[in-house]
Structures are given as C-alpha cells and as structure tokens.
Amino acid sequence: MFSEELLELDRNTVEFMIEDMRRQIEEKDEQIKQLDEQSRQLDEQIRQRNKQIKESDKQIRQLDEQIKESDRQIRQLDEQIKQSEQEIQKMEEAKE
C-alpha cells in the first residue's frame, strides 16, 4: 500500500514536472516569437535608414559636383576680370 502511494506520488511529481517544462517551453517559444518580430522590425528600420543614407550620399555627391562647377566658373570669371583690368590699364597708359 505504501509503495503504491509512493509510486502514485512519483507519477504525480513527474506529471507536474512535465507540465511545468511544457509551460516553460511555451513561454520561451513566445519570447522567441516576440524577439523574432522585434528583429524583423529592426531589420526593416535598418534597411530604411540605409536607403536614406544612400539617398543623402547621392545628394551630397550632386552638391559636390555643383560646387566644383561653381568654383570652375568663378576661376574663369576671375581670369576674365584680370584680363579686363589689364586691358583697361593698357588703354589708360596709351592715353597718357
């Protein structure tokens, strides 16, 4: 009789432990699902930010090219001004 009661107690203990493990596994599975979802969201945010960075880089390159072209035009205008000043100076010297 005592042995049967111990055996029943052991079975109950084993069943309790199994149920507890199942519950823990289910909780862990839920945590994993949540973490997976967070990971997917973060990946999407990273993709969006990378896209924005690429677009910003493109705009920066375009602006850099515009600046280079403006600098080139300024140098040309400076050269024209120098030539004009030299011509004016020669004309003034010729008057004298």
Q: What key phrases describe this protein's structure?
A:
rod-shaped, single chain, 96 residues, 98% helix, 1 helix, mainly alpha
In words, what does this structure look like?
The protein is mostly helical. It contains one helix and no strands. The protein has one helix spanning 2-95. It starts with a helix and ends with a helix. The mean pLDDT is 94.
Quick synopsis:
It contains one helix and no strands.
**Which ranges are low-confidence, i.e. pLDDT below 50, for 5 or more consecutive residues?**
none
Q: How big is the Rg? A: 41 Å
User: How many strand segments?
Assistant: 0
Number of discrete helical segments: 1
* Overall spatial form: rod-shaped
Helix content: over 70%
User: Could you give the distance between the termini?
Assistant: 139 Å
Spell out the helices and strands N to C.
H
Structural class: mainly alpha
On the 0 to 100 scale, the average pLDDT is 94
Oligomerization state of this entry?
single chain
Percent of residues in beta strands: under 5%
* Largest beta-sheet characterization: none
